[in-house]
Amino acid sequence: NAGVTQTPKFRILKIGQSMTLQCTQDMNHNYMYWYRQDPGMGLKLIYYSVGAGITDKGEVPNGYNVSRSTTEDFPLRLELAAPSQTSVYFCASAQGVGNEQFFGPGTRLTVL
Amino acid sequence: AQKVTQAQTEISVVEKEDVTLDCVYETRDTTYYLFWYKQPPSGELVFLIRRNSFDEQNEISGRYSWNFQKSTSSFNFTITASQVVDSAVYFCARSYYGGSQGNLIFGKGTKLSVKP
Fold first, then answer.
1. Of the candidates A67, A105, B69, B90, which lies 20 to 30 Å from A75 by C-alpha distance?
2. Best of A48, A74, A97 to disrupt the B interface by mutation (most B CBs within 10 Å)?
3. Would you call A66 an interface residue with chain B, using a CB distance cutoff of 8 Å?
4. Which residues of chain A have pLDDT under 50?
5. Pairwise CA distance, residues B116 & B14, whole Å
6. Quick one: how far is CA B67 from the chain centroid?
7. Pairing between strand B104-106 and A19-25?
8. How many CB atoms neighbour CB B115 within 10 A?
9. Span B46-74, mean pLDDT?
10. Beta partners for B13?
């Protein structure tokens, strides 16, 4: 099993550009999450999904959008990149509430 | 917001020393889960342990042990006979049980450096 995969691993964007961070899991988990990690900080929740077709905002959703058309995929969209979105982005999945979350390897995004 | 506090930003020890990483959490929930994750220099997040709020039994797994005390809202992590490979950032987290999301609230992490 691959677990949780994320692409790309690294990306540099110019201010105002758009991009989609891909996340796929092969564990048939209903719960999926997007976090961002800023230097010296813990992870903060951007968006989450409790199943296909259901998404909701987390703590820091501004500037991002998500969709969940399948159980496996949970892409994160940045529409107008800003320097404040420079961060490492982690996707995670879990079998249910209270279960451990399995994390992808992360995407390091720099916006210049 | 109900915070998770890891007061120790950085700890440096010499190999074979024991080290304890502190974690204090805030909660109004009666049902919640606590977690520890390890983030080595390579950057991935590795799950270490999960505890639910009804189980205060301490746990030992090899050189790792965890002390959960509801009375003080603490969930501390001890590494016995530390090794260089233990060098990493360690995160304590709590599941947010408001609604049914299960998302985690993380502390800011403690960076552990183990020197040979």
1. B90
2. A97
3. no
4. none
5. 6
6. 10
7. unpaired
8. 11
9. 88
10. B114
Question: For residue B48, what pLDDT is reported?
Answer: 93
Q: Rounded to whole angstroms, how far apart are CA atoms A69 and B7?
A: 41
For residue B91, the chain A residues in CB contact (below 8 A) are 42-43
Identify the three-state secondary structure at position A39. Answer: coil
Contact criterion met (CB < 8 Å) for A106 and B47: no
Taking residues B1-27, report their average pLDDT: 94
Q: Which 3 state secondary structure label does DSSP give A14?
A: coil
Give pLDDT tens digits for B87-115: 999 999 998 766 556 788 999 999 999 99
Evaluated on CA atoms A37, B27, B36, A105, the torsion sign reads negative
* pLDDT for position B11: 97
Question: Alpha-carbon distance B81 to B63, whole Å?
Answer: 7
Q: Which residues of chain B are within 8 Å of residue A42 when distances are taken between CB atoms?
A: 4, 91, 93, 106-109
